[in-house]
Fold:
Amino acid sequence: MTQKASVMKVARGTLRRCGLLALLLSGLVTSRAQALPPAQADWKNIKTPPLHNINQPTPVRIQLENGATIFLLPDSELPIVNIAVTVRGGMREEPADKVGLVSLYDQVWRTGGTKTRTGDQLDDLLALRAASIETSADHNSVNLEAQSLKGDFDEILKLTMEVLREPEFREDKLELARKQLYTEISRRNDDPMGIVGRESTKLALGPQHPYARHPEYSTVASVTRQDLLSWHQRYVQPQNLLIGVQGDFDAKAMEQKLRGLLGAWPKGPTAKAPLPAYTPTKPGLFFIAKDDVNQSNIHLVQLGTTRRNPDHYAIAVMNEILGGGFAARLFSNVRSKKGLAYSVRGGVGIGDEVPNIYRLSVGTASNNTAKALEALYEEVNGMLKNPPTEAELQKAKEGILNSFVFKLDTSEKVLSDQMRLEFAGYPLDYTKTYADQIRKVTLAEVNRVAKQYLNPTGFAVLVVGNPAELGAPVSTLTTAAPGLESDTILVDDNVGVLYMLAQCCKPIWGDEIVGYTTRGRGISIHRANCPHLISSALNPERLVSVAWGKQGQGFFDTEVVVTSEDRPGMVATISNAVQNAGFSMQRFSATTTEGGTGVFHIALRVRDRNHIVELMSVLRRLKGVFTVERVRGSVFGSTH
Structure:
Protein backbone atom coordinates (compact mmCIF):
# COMPACT_ATOMS: atom_id res chain seq x y z
CA MET A 1 0.00 0.00 0.00
CA THR A 2 1.33 3.39 -0.98
CA GLN A 3 1.86 6.08 1.62
CA LYS A 4 -0.95 8.13 0.12
CA ALA A 5 -3.41 5.19 0.29
CA SER A 6 -2.44 4.50 3.87
CA VAL A 7 -3.12 8.11 4.84
CA MET A 8 -6.51 8.04 3.14
CA LYS A 9 -7.46 4.79 4.96
CA VAL A 10 -6.61 6.32 8.31
CA ALA A 11 -8.59 9.45 7.46
CA ARG A 12 -11.68 7.44 6.48
CA GLY A 13 -11.47 5.45 9.70
CA THR A 14 -11.21 8.64 11.74
CA LEU A 15 -14.23 10.13 10.00
CA ARG A 16 -16.31 7.00 10.66
CA ARG A 17 -15.41 7.09 14.36
CA CYS A 18 -16.20 10.81 14.58
CA GLY A 19 -19.54 10.30 12.93
CA LEU A 20 -20.40 7.46 15.29
CA LEU A 21 -19.41 9.59 18.25
CA ALA A 22 -21.55 12.47 16.97
CA LEU A 23 -24.57 10.21 16.66
CA LEU A 24 -24.00 8.82 20.15
CA LEU A 25 -23.69 12.27 21.69
CA SER A 26 -26.76 13.44 19.85
CA GLY A 27 -28.73 10.56 21.31
CA LEU A 28 -27.47 11.25 24.80
CA VAL A 29 -28.36 14.93 24.57
CA THR A 30 -31.82 14.08 23.26
CA SER A 31 -32.49 11.51 25.97
CA ARG A 32 -31.09 13.85 28.65
CA ALA A 33 -33.29 16.66 27.44
CA GLN A 34 -36.30 14.38 27.54
CA ALA A 35 -35.42 13.27 31.10
CA LEU A 36 -35.12 16.82 32.51
CA PRO A 37 -38.15 18.16 34.39
CA PRO A 38 -39.89 21.21 32.93
CA ALA A 39 -38.12 24.48 33.85
CA GLN A 40 -39.56 26.44 36.74
CA ALA A 41 -41.03 29.77 35.74
CA ASP A 42 -39.64 31.46 38.86
CA TRP A 43 -37.02 30.28 41.36
CA LYS A 44 -39.20 31.62 44.15
CA ASN A 45 -41.69 28.88 43.35
CA ILE A 46 -39.21 26.12 44.10
CA LYS A 47 -40.46 24.26 47.15
CA THR A 48 -37.87 23.24 49.71
CA PRO A 49 -38.56 20.15 51.81
CA PRO A 50 -38.91 20.55 55.57
CA LEU A 51 -35.78 20.20 57.67
CA HIS A 52 -35.09 16.81 59.20
CA ASN A 53 -35.18 16.49 62.96
CA ILE A 54 -31.75 16.54 64.58
CA ASN A 55 -31.04 13.26 66.31
CA GLN A 56 -28.76 14.64 68.97
CA PRO A 57 -26.91 12.14 71.17
CA THR A 58 -27.41 12.61 74.90
CA PRO A 59 -24.36 12.60 77.18
CA VAL A 60 -24.49 10.53 80.34
CA ARG A 61 -24.69 12.85 83.39
CA ILE A 62 -23.06 11.72 86.65
CA GLN A 63 -23.19 13.64 89.93
CA LEU A 64 -20.49 12.75 92.47
CA GLU A 65 -21.13 13.06 96.20
CA ASN A 66 -18.56 15.86 96.50
CA GLY A 67 -20.55 17.99 94.01
CA ALA A 68 -18.49 17.43 90.85
CA THR A 69 -20.64 16.96 87.73
CA ILE A 70 -19.46 14.67 84.93
CA PHE A 71 -20.74 14.31 81.37
CA LEU A 72 -19.67 11.33 79.22
CA LEU A 73 -20.27 11.13 75.47
CA PRO A 74 -18.65 8.12 73.73
CA ASP A 75 -17.84 8.52 70.02
CA SER A 76 -15.67 5.92 68.27
CA GLU A 77 -15.37 7.75 64.93
CA LEU A 78 -11.70 8.59 65.70
CA PRO A 79 -9.27 7.00 68.21
CA ILE A 80 -9.12 10.26 70.19
CA VAL A 81 -10.36 11.27 73.64
CA ASN A 82 -11.11 14.89 74.67
CA ILE A 83 -11.46 16.19 78.24
CA ALA A 84 -13.02 19.54 79.16
CA VAL A 85 -13.07 20.94 82.70
CA THR A 86 -15.02 24.11 83.52
CA VAL A 87 -14.48 25.80 86.89
CA ARG A 88 -17.09 28.23 88.18
CA GLY A 89 -15.36 31.54 88.91
CA GLY A 90 -13.82 33.96 86.43
CA MET A 91 -12.84 37.55 85.77
CA ARG A 92 -16.01 38.96 87.28
CA GLU A 93 -14.84 37.73 90.70
CA GLU A 94 -11.47 39.53 90.52
CA PRO A 95 -10.80 42.22 93.14
CA ALA A 96 -11.01 45.68 91.55
CA ASP A 97 -7.39 46.43 92.46
CA LYS A 98 -6.15 43.18 90.86
CA VAL A 99 -7.96 43.15 87.51
CA GLY A 100 -5.88 40.89 85.29
CA LEU A 101 -5.42 38.26 87.99
CA VAL A 102 -7.47 35.66 86.12
CA SER A 103 -5.71 36.43 82.83
CA LEU A 104 -2.39 35.71 84.53
CA TYR A 105 -3.85 32.67 86.27
CA ASP A 106 -5.08 31.32 82.93
CA GLN A 107 -1.57 31.40 81.42
CA VAL A 108 0.51 30.34 84.40
CA TRP A 109 -1.87 27.55 85.41
CA ARG A 110 -0.52 25.60 82.45
CA THR A 111 2.93 27.12 81.77
CA GLY A 112 3.86 27.13 85.48
CA GLY A 113 3.78 23.33 85.61
CA THR A 114 2.91 21.11 88.56
CA LYS A 115 4.64 20.16 91.78
CA THR A 116 6.50 17.34 90.01
CA ARG A 117 7.07 18.82 86.50
CA THR A 118 7.86 22.21 85.05
CA GLY A 119 5.76 23.62 82.27
CA ASP A 120 8.59 23.03 79.82
CA GLN A 121 8.76 19.37 80.82
CA LEU A 122 5.03 19.10 80.25
CA ASP A 123 5.48 20.61 76.78
CA ASP A 124 8.09 17.99 75.85
CA LEU A 125 6.10 15.06 77.19
CA LEU A 126 2.88 16.15 75.44
CA ALA A 127 4.68 16.79 72.14
CA LEU A 128 6.08 13.26 72.10
CA ARG A 129 2.54 11.88 72.36
CA ALA A 130 0.81 14.32 69.99
CA ALA A 131 -1.33 15.38 72.96
CA SER A 132 -2.29 18.75 74.42
CA ILE A 133 -3.33 20.33 77.72
CA GLU A 134 -4.51 23.94 77.42
CA THR A 135 -6.18 26.49 79.67
CA SER A 136 -8.50 29.46 79.05
CA ALA A 137 -10.60 31.95 81.02
CA ASP A 138 -13.57 34.27 80.60
CA HIS A 139 -15.73 36.44 82.84
CA ASN A 140 -17.58 33.48 84.33
CA SER A 141 -15.14 30.58 84.45
CA VAL A 142 -11.67 29.17 83.96
CA ASN A 143 -11.25 26.11 81.76
CA LEU A 144 -8.87 23.22 81.26
CA GLU A 145 -8.93 21.12 78.08
CA ALA A 146 -6.91 18.05 77.10
CA GLN A 147 -6.73 15.83 74.04
CA SER A 148 -4.88 12.58 73.40
CA LEU A 149 -4.84 9.45 71.32
CA LYS A 150 -6.88 6.63 72.82
CA GLY A 151 -3.77 4.59 73.60
CA ASP A 152 -2.16 7.40 75.59
CA PHE A 153 -5.28 8.49 77.41
CA ASP A 154 -4.50 7.09 80.86
CA GLU A 155 -1.16 8.87 80.97
CA ILE A 156 -2.62 12.18 79.68
CA LEU A 157 -5.53 11.93 82.13
CA LYS A 158 -3.02 11.60 84.98
CA LEU A 159 -1.17 14.71 83.76
CA THR A 160 -4.47 16.60 83.45
CA MET A 161 -5.34 15.78 87.05
CA GLU A 162 -1.90 17.02 88.12
CA VAL A 163 -2.47 20.36 86.39
CA LEU A 164 -5.97 20.56 87.83
CA ARG A 165 -5.06 19.77 91.43
CA GLU A 166 -1.36 20.53 91.89
CA PRO A 167 -0.36 23.61 89.86
CA GLU A 168 2.85 25.32 90.95
CA PHE A 169 2.53 28.80 89.33
CA ARG A 170 6.31 29.21 89.11
CA GLU A 171 7.59 32.76 89.46
CA ASP A 172 9.51 32.84 86.16
CA LYS A 173 6.40 31.96 84.19
CA LEU A 174 4.33 34.49 86.14
CA GLU A 175 6.79 37.24 85.23
CA LEU A 176 6.74 36.18 81.59
CA ALA A 177 2.93 36.26 81.55
CA ARG A 178 2.96 39.65 83.27
CA LYS A 179 5.26 41.09 80.57
CA GLN A 180 3.00 39.68 77.86
CA LEU A 181 -0.02 41.31 79.48
CA TYR A 182 1.88 44.61 79.75
CA THR A 183 2.50 44.38 76.00
CA GLU A 184 -1.20 43.81 75.35
CA ILE A 185 -2.06 46.86 77.46
CA SER A 186 0.48 49.01 75.61
CA ARG A 187 -0.94 48.02 72.20
CA ARG A 188 -4.66 47.83 72.92
CA ASN A 189 -5.31 51.29 71.47
CA ASP A 190 -3.74 50.44 68.11
CA ASP A 191 -6.95 48.83 66.91
CA PRO A 192 -9.98 51.17 66.62
CA MET A 193 -12.39 48.22 66.67
CA GLY A 194 -10.86 47.08 69.93
CA ILE A 195 -11.27 50.57 71.38
CA VAL A 196 -14.91 50.94 70.36
CA GLY A 197 -15.81 47.49 71.69
CA ARG A 198 -14.06 47.99 75.01
CA GLU A 199 -15.25 51.52 75.71
CA SER A 200 -18.83 51.03 74.49
CA THR A 201 -19.11 48.13 76.94
CA LYS A 202 -18.27 50.59 79.71
CA LEU A 203 -20.99 52.91 78.47
CA ALA A 204 -23.53 50.10 78.43
CA LEU A 205 -22.70 48.60 81.83
CA GLY A 206 -20.78 51.31 83.69
CA PRO A 207 -16.97 51.58 83.89
CA GLN A 208 -16.71 49.69 87.20
CA HIS A 209 -18.97 46.82 86.22
CA PRO A 210 -17.06 43.49 86.39
CA TYR A 211 -17.81 42.79 82.71
CA ALA A 212 -16.48 46.22 81.67
CA ARG A 213 -13.20 46.29 83.59
CA HIS A 214 -9.87 45.57 81.95
CA PRO A 215 -6.31 45.18 83.23
CA GLU A 216 -4.09 48.21 83.85
CA TYR A 217 -0.36 48.29 84.54
CA SER A 218 -0.95 48.90 88.26
CA THR A 219 -3.51 46.13 88.72
CA VAL A 220 -1.37 43.61 86.85
CA ALA A 221 1.73 44.62 88.84
CA SER A 222 -0.10 43.98 92.12
CA VAL A 223 -0.80 40.29 91.37
CA THR A 224 1.51 37.89 93.22
CA ARG A 225 2.13 34.15 93.02
CA GLN A 226 0.27 33.82 96.31
CA ASP A 227 -2.77 35.49 94.72
CA LEU A 228 -2.80 32.76 92.06
CA LEU A 229 -2.46 30.00 94.65
CA SER A 230 -5.23 31.54 96.77
CA TRP A 231 -7.50 31.86 93.74
CA HIS A 232 -6.93 28.23 92.84
CA GLN A 233 -7.57 27.08 96.39
CA ARG A 234 -10.79 29.06 96.57
CA TYR A 235 -12.40 28.16 93.25
CA VAL A 236 -10.91 24.85 92.06
CA GLN A 237 -13.01 22.70 94.36
CA PRO A 238 -15.07 19.67 93.29
CA GLN A 239 -18.46 21.32 93.77
CA ASN A 240 -17.39 24.04 91.31
CA LEU A 241 -16.35 21.60 88.57
CA LEU A 242 -18.05 20.46 85.37
CA ILE A 243 -16.07 17.69 83.66
CA GLY A 244 -16.86 16.45 80.17
CA VAL A 245 -15.24 13.55 78.32
CA GLN A 246 -15.88 12.84 74.63
CA GLY A 247 -14.31 10.34 72.28
CA ASP A 248 -13.39 6.69 71.86
CA PHE A 249 -13.98 5.04 75.25
CA ASP A 250 -16.34 2.77 77.15
CA ALA A 251 -18.71 4.86 79.29
CA LYS A 252 -18.84 2.47 82.28
CA ALA A 253 -15.08 2.08 82.39
CA MET A 254 -14.59 5.84 82.11
CA GLU A 255 -17.07 6.51 84.92
CA GLN A 256 -15.21 4.08 87.18
CA LYS A 257 -11.88 5.69 86.28
CA LEU A 258 -13.10 9.23 87.05
CA ARG A 259 -14.78 8.18 90.28
CA GLY A 260 -11.46 6.72 91.38
CA LEU A 261 -9.59 9.96 90.58
CA LEU A 262 -12.17 12.47 91.84
CA GLY A 263 -14.46 10.72 94.27
CA ALA A 264 -12.15 11.02 97.29
CA TRP A 265 -11.55 14.75 96.71
CA PRO A 266 -13.29 16.41 99.67
CA LYS A 267 -15.84 19.10 99.03
CA GLY A 268 -14.35 22.58 99.62
CA PRO A 269 -15.77 25.90 100.78
CA THR A 270 -18.46 27.49 98.62
CA ALA A 271 -17.13 30.57 96.84
CA LYS A 272 -19.92 31.46 94.39
CA ALA A 273 -20.24 35.23 94.20
CA PRO A 274 -23.60 36.94 93.51
CA LEU A 275 -24.27 37.95 89.93
CA PRO A 276 -23.28 41.56 89.21
CA ALA A 277 -26.02 44.18 89.40
CA TYR A 278 -27.07 46.20 86.38
CA THR A 279 -28.33 49.75 86.02
CA PRO A 280 -29.97 51.26 82.93
CA THR A 281 -27.59 52.62 80.30
CA LYS A 282 -27.32 56.42 80.30
CA PRO A 283 -28.06 57.71 76.77
CA GLY A 284 -25.59 60.14 75.22
CA LEU A 285 -23.16 60.79 72.40
CA PHE A 286 -19.47 60.06 73.02
CA PHE A 287 -16.43 60.36 70.80
CA ILE A 288 -12.86 59.06 70.95
CA ALA A 289 -10.46 60.77 68.59
CA LYS A 290 -8.03 58.56 66.66
CA ASP A 291 -6.24 60.68 64.09
CA ASP A 292 -4.41 57.86 62.26
CA VAL A 293 -7.54 56.32 60.69
CA ASN A 294 -9.74 57.23 57.74
CA GLN A 295 -12.94 55.56 58.91
CA SER A 296 -15.26 55.68 61.90
CA ASN A 297 -16.35 52.75 64.04
CA ILE A 298 -19.74 53.37 65.63
CA HIS A 299 -21.44 51.37 68.38
CA LEU A 300 -24.91 52.00 69.79
CA VAL A 301 -25.36 50.17 73.09
CA GLN A 302 -27.79 49.54 75.93
CA LEU A 303 -28.75 46.58 78.09
CA GLY A 304 -30.21 43.46 76.49
CA THR A 305 -31.84 40.44 78.15
CA THR A 306 -31.30 36.78 79.06
CA ARG A 307 -32.62 33.39 77.97
CA ARG A 308 -34.68 33.29 81.14
CA ASN A 309 -36.89 35.91 79.53
CA PRO A 310 -39.76 34.01 77.85
CA ASP A 311 -39.65 36.59 75.03
CA HIS A 312 -36.15 35.58 73.98
CA TYR A 313 -37.35 33.28 71.16
CA ALA A 314 -39.31 36.10 69.56
CA ILE A 315 -36.39 38.48 70.16
CA ALA A 316 -34.07 36.06 68.34
CA VAL A 317 -36.35 36.10 65.29
CA MET A 318 -36.63 39.89 65.45
CA ASN A 319 -32.82 40.14 65.63
CA GLU A 320 -32.54 37.99 62.51
CA ILE A 321 -34.85 40.36 60.62
CA LEU A 322 -33.01 43.46 61.81
CA GLY A 323 -29.37 42.45 61.66
CA GLY A 324 -28.92 38.70 61.30
CA GLY A 325 -27.31 38.31 57.90
CA PHE A 326 -27.07 39.38 54.25
CA ALA A 327 -30.87 39.54 53.89
CA ALA A 328 -31.39 41.48 57.14
CA ARG A 329 -32.55 45.08 57.05
CA LEU A 330 -29.30 46.54 58.37
CA PHE A 331 -27.11 44.84 55.78
CA SER A 332 -29.55 45.18 52.90
CA ASN A 333 -30.31 48.87 53.45
CA VAL A 334 -27.27 50.43 55.16
CA ARG A 335 -24.61 48.54 53.19
CA SER A 336 -26.11 47.23 49.95
CA LYS A 337 -28.55 50.01 49.05
CA LYS A 338 -26.96 53.08 50.65
CA GLY A 339 -23.33 52.00 50.43
CA LEU A 340 -22.53 53.46 53.86
CA ALA A 341 -20.92 50.52 55.60
CA TYR A 342 -17.99 48.16 55.37
CA SER A 343 -19.70 46.08 58.03
CA VAL A 344 -22.98 46.51 59.86
CA ARG A 345 -24.75 44.22 62.30
CA GLY A 346 -26.62 44.17 65.58
CA GLY A 347 -29.54 43.13 67.72
CA VAL A 348 -30.80 42.83 71.27
CA GLY A 349 -28.23 40.80 73.21
CA ILE A 350 -29.44 37.57 74.83
CA GLY A 351 -27.21 36.28 77.63
CA ASP A 352 -27.18 33.03 79.56
CA GLU A 353 -26.79 34.07 83.20
CA VAL A 354 -26.77 37.86 82.86
CA PRO A 355 -28.12 40.33 80.25
CA ASN A 356 -26.01 40.58 77.15
CA ILE A 357 -25.44 43.97 75.53
CA TYR A 358 -27.94 45.23 72.96
CA ARG A 359 -25.47 46.48 70.36
CA LEU A 360 -25.63 47.92 66.84
CA SER A 361 -22.33 48.47 65.06
CA VAL A 362 -21.18 49.96 61.78
CA GLY A 363 -17.84 50.77 60.17
CA THR A 364 -17.92 53.60 57.64
CA ALA A 365 -15.75 56.15 55.84
CA SER A 366 -15.01 59.20 58.00
CA ASN A 367 -17.04 61.60 55.87
CA ASN A 368 -20.08 59.27 56.07
CA THR A 369 -20.16 59.12 59.87
CA ALA A 370 -23.29 61.22 60.34
CA LYS A 371 -25.10 59.46 57.48
CA ALA A 372 -24.24 56.00 58.83
CA LEU A 373 -25.35 56.93 62.34
CA GLU A 374 -28.59 58.31 60.98
CA ALA A 375 -29.09 55.15 58.92
CA LEU A 376 -28.79 52.94 62.03
CA TYR A 377 -31.51 54.94 63.77
CA GLU A 378 -33.67 54.78 60.63
CA GLU A 379 -33.52 50.99 60.65
CA VAL A 380 -34.36 50.69 64.36
CA ASN A 381 -37.25 53.12 64.00
CA GLY A 382 -38.22 51.42 60.75
CA MET A 383 -38.87 48.17 62.64
CA LEU A 384 -41.59 50.11 64.48
CA LYS A 385 -42.94 52.31 61.68
CA ASN A 386 -42.77 49.59 59.01
CA PRO A 387 -43.19 46.34 60.97
CA PRO A 388 -41.76 43.07 59.64
CA THR A 389 -43.83 41.23 57.06
CA GLU A 390 -44.86 37.59 56.95
CA ALA A 391 -42.23 36.99 54.28
CA GLU A 392 -39.52 38.46 56.52
CA LEU A 393 -40.74 36.33 59.41
CA GLN A 394 -40.48 33.10 57.41
CA LYS A 395 -37.08 34.02 55.98
CA ALA A 396 -35.78 34.82 59.47
CA LYS A 397 -37.02 31.52 60.88
CA GLU A 398 -35.44 29.62 57.99
CA GLY A 399 -32.16 31.42 58.57
CA ILE A 400 -32.10 30.47 62.25
CA LEU A 401 -33.20 26.86 61.68
CA ASN A 402 -30.91 26.22 58.70
CA SER A 403 -27.87 27.37 60.67
CA PHE A 404 -28.96 25.69 63.90
CA VAL A 405 -27.84 22.24 62.74
CA PHE A 406 -24.22 23.41 62.58
CA LYS A 407 -24.26 24.16 66.30
CA LEU A 408 -24.67 20.45 67.03
CA ASP A 409 -22.99 18.74 64.08
CA THR A 410 -20.22 17.10 66.13
CA SER A 411 -20.23 15.24 69.41
CA GLU A 412 -17.76 17.81 70.81
CA LYS A 413 -20.31 20.57 70.21
CA VAL A 414 -23.09 18.50 71.76
CA LEU A 415 -21.03 17.93 74.91
CA SER A 416 -20.04 21.61 75.10
CA ASP A 417 -23.69 22.63 74.77
CA GLN A 418 -24.77 20.34 77.61
CA MET A 419 -22.04 21.68 79.87
CA ARG A 420 -23.06 25.26 79.05
CA LEU A 421 -26.67 24.54 79.97
CA GLU A 422 -25.61 22.86 83.22
CA PHE A 423 -23.36 25.82 84.08
CA ALA A 424 -26.15 28.37 83.56
CA GLY A 425 -28.82 26.28 85.26
CA TYR A 426 -31.01 25.69 82.19
CA PRO A 427 -32.96 22.50 81.44
CA LEU A 428 -30.67 20.06 79.65
CA ASP A 429 -33.27 19.63 76.88
CA TYR A 430 -33.29 23.39 76.15
CA THR A 431 -31.35 23.00 72.89
CA LYS A 432 -33.46 20.03 71.74
CA THR A 433 -36.64 22.11 72.03
CA TYR A 434 -35.14 25.35 70.67
CA ALA A 435 -36.04 24.74 67.02
CA ASP A 436 -39.68 24.00 67.88
CA GLN A 437 -39.88 27.19 69.94
CA ILE A 438 -38.55 29.23 67.01
CA ARG A 439 -41.12 27.65 64.67
CA LYS A 440 -43.91 28.74 67.05
CA VAL A 441 -42.97 32.44 66.98
CA THR A 442 -45.71 34.52 65.34
CA LEU A 443 -45.58 37.82 63.49
CA ALA A 444 -47.63 39.43 66.26
CA GLU A 445 -45.02 38.34 68.83
CA VAL A 446 -42.16 39.77 66.74
CA ASN A 447 -43.93 43.10 66.41
CA ARG A 448 -44.70 43.16 70.12
CA VAL A 449 -41.10 42.53 71.22
CA ALA A 450 -39.86 45.10 68.70
CA LYS A 451 -41.99 47.74 70.40
CA GLN A 452 -40.97 46.55 73.85
CA TYR A 453 -37.21 46.04 73.47
CA LEU A 454 -35.79 48.09 70.57
CA ASN A 455 -36.00 51.38 72.54
CA PRO A 456 -34.48 53.81 69.97
CA THR A 457 -34.01 56.60 72.55
CA GLY A 458 -32.08 54.43 75.02
CA PHE A 459 -28.72 54.18 73.25
CA ALA A 460 -25.34 55.36 74.39
CA VAL A 461 -23.56 56.15 71.11
CA LEU A 462 -19.79 55.86 70.81
CA VAL A 463 -17.86 56.96 67.72
CA VAL A 464 -14.15 56.21 67.32
CA GLY A 465 -12.72 58.12 64.40
CA ASN A 466 -10.68 60.97 62.97
CA PRO A 467 -12.35 64.30 63.83
CA ALA A 468 -10.39 66.11 61.10
CA GLU A 469 -12.08 64.01 58.39
CA LEU A 470 -15.68 64.07 59.61
CA GLY A 471 -16.53 67.24 57.69
CA ALA A 472 -18.37 68.72 60.70
CA PRO A 473 -17.87 69.02 64.48
CA VAL A 474 -18.62 65.88 66.44
CA SER A 475 -21.16 67.75 68.52
CA THR A 476 -23.35 68.06 65.41
CA LEU A 477 -23.75 64.28 65.25
CA THR A 478 -26.62 64.59 67.71
CA THR A 479 -28.74 65.72 64.76
CA ALA A 480 -28.22 62.27 63.22
CA ALA A 481 -29.58 60.59 66.35
CA PRO A 482 -33.16 61.83 66.87
CA GLY A 483 -34.11 62.35 70.49
CA LEU A 484 -30.56 61.81 71.76
CA GLU A 485 -29.55 64.02 74.65
CA SER A 486 -25.89 64.99 74.43
CA ASP A 487 -24.00 65.12 77.71
CA THR A 488 -20.82 65.43 75.70
CA ILE A 489 -17.80 67.26 77.02
CA LEU A 490 -16.49 69.67 74.38
CA VAL A 491 -12.80 70.07 73.58
CA ASP A 492 -11.77 73.23 71.72
CA ASP A 493 -15.48 74.14 71.72
CA ASN A 494 -16.45 71.66 69.03
CA VAL A 495 -15.25 68.11 69.51
CA GLY A 496 -17.05 65.71 71.86
CA VAL A 497 -15.03 63.01 73.56
CA LEU A 498 -15.49 60.00 75.78
CA TYR A 499 -14.94 61.24 79.29
CA MET A 500 -14.85 60.14 82.91
CA LEU A 501 -15.75 62.35 85.86
CA ALA A 502 -12.80 62.22 88.24
CA GLN A 503 -13.68 60.73 91.62
CA CYS A 504 -11.05 62.83 93.38
CA CYS A 505 -13.10 66.02 92.98
CA LYS A 506 -16.48 64.88 91.55
CA PRO A 507 -17.25 67.69 89.08
CA ILE A 508 -20.88 68.41 88.26
CA TRP A 509 -22.43 70.24 85.34
CA GLY A 510 -21.65 73.95 85.59
CA ASP A 511 -18.36 73.61 87.49
CA GLU A 512 -15.26 75.16 85.99
CA ILE A 513 -13.43 72.12 84.63
CA VAL A 514 -10.11 70.96 83.18
CA GLY A 515 -9.43 67.77 81.24
CA TYR A 516 -6.56 65.33 81.58
CA THR A 517 -5.86 62.93 78.70
CA THR A 518 -5.70 59.31 79.87
CA ARG A 519 -4.32 56.37 77.93
CA GLY A 520 -7.17 54.91 75.90
CA ARG A 521 -9.99 55.93 78.28
CA GLY A 522 -10.79 59.36 76.95
CA ILE A 523 -10.55 62.52 79.06
CA SER A 524 -10.63 62.55 82.86
CA ILE A 525 -12.65 65.62 83.87
CA HIS A 526 -11.56 67.49 87.03
CA ARG A 527 -12.75 70.60 88.80
CA ALA A 528 -10.37 73.44 88.00
CA ASN A 529 -9.27 73.67 91.66
CA CYS A 530 -8.67 69.92 92.07
CA PRO A 531 -5.46 69.30 94.08
CA HIS A 532 -4.57 66.34 91.86
CA LEU A 533 -4.09 68.65 88.88
CA ILE A 534 -1.04 70.22 90.50
CA SER A 535 0.41 66.88 91.53
CA SER A 536 3.95 66.31 90.32
CA ALA A 537 2.85 62.85 89.10
CA LEU A 538 0.71 64.40 86.35
CA ASN A 539 2.13 65.40 82.99
CA PRO A 540 1.11 69.03 82.30
CA GLU A 541 1.32 68.40 78.55
CA ARG A 542 -1.70 66.10 78.83
CA LEU A 543 -3.95 68.82 80.26
CA VAL A 544 -6.59 69.98 77.77
CA SER A 545 -9.13 72.79 77.69
CA VAL A 546 -12.66 71.45 78.07
CA ALA A 547 -16.15 72.80 78.55
CA TRP A 548 -19.58 71.38 79.23
CA GLY A 549 -21.74 70.69 76.18
CA LYS A 550 -25.52 70.66 76.07
CA GLN A 551 -26.98 69.68 79.43
CA GLY A 552 -28.83 66.36 79.43
CA GLN A 553 -31.32 64.85 81.86
CA GLY A 554 -28.82 62.99 84.02
CA PHE A 555 -27.78 63.47 87.64
CA PHE A 556 -24.35 63.83 89.24
CA ASP A 557 -23.08 62.38 92.51
CA THR A 558 -21.71 64.86 95.00
CA GLU A 559 -21.31 65.28 98.76
CA VAL A 560 -21.54 68.08 101.32
CA VAL A 561 -20.32 68.35 104.90
CA VAL A 562 -22.29 70.33 107.48
CA THR A 563 -21.03 71.45 110.90
CA SER A 564 -23.50 72.54 113.59
CA GLU A 565 -24.33 72.65 117.24
CA ASP A 566 -24.38 69.24 118.87
CA ARG A 567 -27.92 69.15 120.20
CA PRO A 568 -30.84 66.71 120.14
CA GLY A 569 -32.89 66.74 116.93
CA MET A 570 -30.13 68.14 114.71
CA VAL A 571 -29.91 64.95 112.63
CA ALA A 572 -33.64 65.07 111.92
CA THR A 573 -33.51 68.81 111.19
CA ILE A 574 -30.79 68.46 108.55
CA SER A 575 -32.07 65.23 106.90
CA ASN A 576 -35.64 66.60 106.72
CA ALA A 577 -34.38 69.81 105.13
CA VAL A 578 -32.59 67.85 102.41
CA GLN A 579 -35.60 65.68 101.65
CA ASN A 580 -38.12 68.55 101.80
CA ALA A 581 -36.02 70.46 99.28
CA GLY A 582 -36.58 67.57 96.84
CA PHE A 583 -33.07 66.10 96.79
CA SER A 584 -32.19 62.44 96.39
CA MET A 585 -30.08 61.63 99.46
CA GLN A 586 -27.90 58.54 98.92
CA ARG A 587 -26.06 58.31 102.27
CA PHE A 588 -25.96 60.19 105.57
CA SER A 589 -23.58 60.00 108.52
CA ALA A 590 -23.31 61.97 111.78
CA THR A 591 -20.36 62.29 114.18
CA THR A 592 -19.30 64.62 116.99
CA THR A 593 -15.88 66.20 117.45
CA GLU A 594 -14.04 66.32 120.75
CA GLY A 595 -14.98 69.99 120.95
CA GLY A 596 -18.69 69.20 120.80
CA THR A 597 -19.40 70.14 117.18
CA GLY A 598 -21.75 68.01 115.11
CA VAL A 599 -20.37 66.91 111.73
CA PHE A 600 -22.77 65.58 109.09
CA HIS A 601 -21.72 64.06 105.76
CA ILE A 602 -24.38 63.81 103.06
CA ALA A 603 -24.06 62.04 99.69
CA LEU A 604 -26.71 63.06 97.16
CA ARG A 605 -27.50 63.41 93.48
CA VAL A 606 -27.98 66.77 91.80
CA ARG A 607 -28.69 68.08 88.31
CA ASP A 608 -25.97 70.75 88.19
CA ARG A 609 -23.98 73.33 90.15
CA ASN A 610 -26.98 75.61 90.68
CA HIS A 611 -28.85 72.68 92.17
CA ILE A 612 -26.22 72.04 94.84
CA VAL A 613 -25.85 75.79 95.55
CA GLU A 614 -29.61 75.86 96.18
CA LEU A 615 -29.35 73.07 98.76
CA MET A 616 -26.36 74.60 100.49
CA SER A 617 -28.27 77.86 100.82
CA VAL A 618 -31.19 76.01 102.44
CA LEU A 619 -28.89 74.27 104.93
CA ARG A 620 -27.04 77.46 105.88
CA ARG A 621 -30.32 79.04 106.94
CA LEU A 622 -31.05 76.29 109.47
CA LYS A 623 -30.79 77.31 113.12
CA GLY A 624 -27.64 75.95 114.73
CA VAL A 625 -25.73 75.31 111.46
CA PHE A 626 -22.18 76.73 111.40
CA THR A 627 -20.83 75.83 107.95
CA VAL A 628 -21.89 74.02 104.78
CA GLU A 629 -19.17 73.00 102.32
CA ARG A 630 -19.01 70.82 99.27
CA VAL A 631 -16.65 67.84 99.57
CA ARG A 632 -13.99 67.64 96.85
CA GLY A 633 -14.03 63.85 96.59
CA SER A 634 -15.95 61.33 98.65
CA VAL A 635 -16.11 60.51 102.32
CA PHE A 636 -18.15 57.36 101.63
CA GLY A 637 -16.35 56.11 98.51
CA SER A 638 -18.36 55.29 95.40
CA THR A 639 -22.08 56.02 95.72
CA HIS A 640 -22.99 53.63 92.91
Notes: The chain has four domains: 60-191+209-262, 284-461, 487-548, 556-630. The CA atoms of residues 353 and 625 lie 50 Å apart.
